[in-house]
Write a structure and sequence with these properties.
- It is built from 19 helices and twelve strands.
- It has an eight-stranded mixed beta sheet with strand order 7-6-5-8-9-11-10-12, sandwiched between helices. It has a four-stranded antiparallel beta sheet with strand order 1-2-3-4, sandwiched between helices.
- The radius of gyration is 27 Å and the shape is elongated.
- It folds into two domains: 214 residues, Growth Hormone, Chain: A (Up-down Bundle); 240 residues, Rossmann fold (3-Layer(aba) Sandwich), CATH 3.40.50.
- α2 packs antiparallel against α3 and α7 packs antiparallel against α8.
Length: 508
């Protein structure tokens, strides 16, 4: 009988769909709630709870009514629910974006909870499959262990495929929502085939999933401001390129920070990127014009910093830019004139690259903090020691750190950690953005040394940045000497959650 022969393939597809849902859910949430350790923890924990509930329900149902038709109906409904989730979740997630804009904690938390509960139904239904299949396949007690082993092995094999396919193929190639629709369609199709011809109704579920696919909005989410030029999902980020007036901006993930800018009418960015041009001034007093010979940028993004340095210092400086996401580099060439920087572009994780391939540099810029959540391994004493090891004598490490207008706890944490590695740590508050530039020196340097050197800057763009540093920005020696982050303990996400909570509740 066809229904019996399809039972083990159904187990395999159900295992594949259960992991596909988990990855799909994480990517649906990422543009709105991020991919922090806490988001993943909540998601994985809830999925395990849902599966546990499904195991219990499936076992009881199978004992009361060991009918394979009932199992196929369960998986058909699970597939239909997966198929309509991307369509239904879209307006809910847009409401969460509005909540962020209005700083409504209840609205944001409510929409997050609603989306997570939406995934409860299909995961619980899929959790029913393994115990139900074991009951149907069990012939006698003596072979019970072998039957259970086969079912769980096949389900796990499907889960492995459900892990690799979305990560390495479906999501980077087609996107999150088409990936979920694809898993839903496969699950509904095999379920409808198992019920055919007795339950033709369930064959219509496949048409419903396809219709939901067709009705999905063309975009993932609208930009907070400006005109959306393009958006895409990469293996690492949800990416938007937005135009506001004459300025093109690179927005990643939750959209809480601008990662690159290009203005067709003004080479100055009037943001923190300009202050990075004068990093070489953070050294003992010099006698001649400053002109760094080599620069490494960890977090190249669309290439704003690299382009600024090329415009300022011409061909006298060798520029290397490291970016983990090749899709961002491609968009950098397309929208941000990254090619003008004539930089050596490296696709790699910044920490791995600095530990294995980096040369020596006059300046190392770290601009890889993906606001609001940032990679913890780029905030530790061990990492900053590796950066210092690749600086020439007198070289400078410059780090861009986001903050709120009044909450400097993240700045304090980074500055305190860098103070454990560098001779002096200086801060420059950007007057236009909520950013602070943290500079670590490899030699003892005074404020008078820095002011003297800033007066010597004569390169185009850099001269204006030096004047802004002296006149508009706040330049001061770091007063922070608190907890030092290490590879073993770097609670940066906990700190950022506290900052966000304080901000949205009016405390920061």
């Amino acid at each position: 009988m066809l229904r019996s022969r399809l039972l083990l393939p159904l187990v395999f597809v159900s295992g594949m769909a259960s992991l596909g849902i988990e990855f799909g859910a994480s990517r649906l949430l990422a543009p709105y709630f991020g991919t922090s350790l806490y988001v993943w923890g909540v998601l994985i924990g809830l999925v395990l709870i849902y599966l546990s509930v499904g195991y219990v329900i499936g076992g009881r149902l199978a004992d009361r009514r060991p009918d394979d038709a009932l199992l196929y109906q369960i998986t058909a409904w699970a597939g239909l629910w997966i198929g309509i989730t991307p369509l239904v979740s879209y307006p809910i997630l847009l409401a969460s974006q509005q909540g962020f804009r209005e700083l409504s904690v209840g609205l944001v938390a409510g929409t997050l909870l609603a989306v997570l509960l939406m995934f409860a139904v299909p995961v619980i239904l899929l959790g029913c499959v393994s115990p139900f299949a074991i009951r149907l396949l069990l012939k006698d007690v003596e072979t019970g262990g072998n039957t259970a082993g086969r079912v769980y092995a096949l389900s796990t094999a499907g889960s492995i495929l459900g892990t690799f396919l979305p990560v390495f193929w479906f999501i980077p190639t087609y996107g999150t929502r088409p990936t979920l629709e694809g898993f839903a369609l496969v699950l509904v199709s095999i379920s409808a085939l198992g019920l055919w011809p007795r339950r033709r109704l369930y064959a219509s579920f496949a048409a419903a999933v396809i219709l939901a696919w067709i009705l999905l909005p063309a975009g993932i989410k609208p930009p907070a401001v400006g005109q959306l030029l393009t958006e895409k999902e990469s293996a690492y980020n949800y990416i938007q390129v937005v135009r506001a007036g004459t300025t093109t901006e690179l927005i990643l993930n939750e959209g809480l920070a601008i990662h690159s800018v290009y203005n067709s009418e003004d080479n100055l960015t009037h943001g923190y990127w300009d202050y990075l041009l004068v990093a070489d001034a953070f050294r003992p007093a010099q006698s001649g014009a400053l002109s760094p010979r080599s620069l490494a940028i960890l977090g190249l993004a669309g290439g704003t910093t690299a382009r600024q340095y090329r415009l300022a210092y011409g061909d006298s400086i060798d520029i290397t830019g490291v970016e983990i996401d090749p899709e961002i580099l491609s968009l950098g060439h397309q929208y941000f004139h990254l090619g003008d920087a004539r930089a050596h572009e490296v696709v790699a994780d910044a920490r791995y690259w600095i530990a294995t391939q980096a040369a020596q540099y006059d300046v190392v810029v770290l601009d890889a903090y993906r606001q609001p959540y940032i990679p913890f391994h780029l905030t530790t004493k061990e990492f900053f020691q590796q950066v210092r090891d690749h600086l020439n004598p007198g070289g400078v490490a410059a780090v861009n750190v986001g903050r709120t207008a009044t909450d400097y706890r993240l700045v304090a944490a980074i500055a305190s950690t860098m103070a454990a590695v560098y001779d002096n740590v200086y801060l420059v508050d950007d007057s236009s953005f909520d950013n602070t530039l943290v500079y670590g020196t490899t030699e003892p340097v005074s404020l008078d040394d820095i002011r003297h050197n800033l007066g010597l800057v004569s390169a185009p763009l850099a001269r204006q940045a030096a004047e802004n540093t002296l006149q508009q920005a706040q330049l001061f020696l770091s007063p922070y000497h608190g907890q030092v982050f290490t590879d073993d303990l770097a609670p940066v996400e906990q700190l950022i959650d506290e900052i966000i909570f304080g901000y949205v509740t009016g405390g920061g």
